[in-house]
Design brief:
The protein is mainly alpha-helical and about 70 residues long. It has a domain of about 30 residues. It is elongated and about 35 Å long. The model has no long low-confidence stretch (mean pLDDT about 80). Pfam families: MT0933_antitox (PF14013). This is Antitoxin. It comes from Streptomyces finlayi.
Length: about 70
């Protein structure tokens, strides 16, 4: 079992809290870098949320369907 599988298992049922934590961590990274890497941080946040099961975008909408 991979580390990501273990994390997903622990967070099952707590996706909203995990999403909030990802947002706070990204905001902290933006603050520390004075927004220099904001685009990369946002991309990382979105990808991590997808991995953890919270597929909503930054504006709260679901991502487009995969082709």
């Amino acid at each position: 079992m991979s580390a990501m599988d273990k994390i997903k298992k622990m967070l099952k049922g707590h996706e909203d809290q995990a999403s909030t934590g990802v947002d706070k961590a990204g905001d902290a990274a933006d603050d520390r870098t004075q927004g220099k890497y904001r685009g990369k941080v946002d991309t990382g946040q979105d990808r991590l949320k997808q991995q953890l099961g919270d597929d909503r975008g930054q504006d709260g909408t679901p991502p487009p369907p995969h082709a």
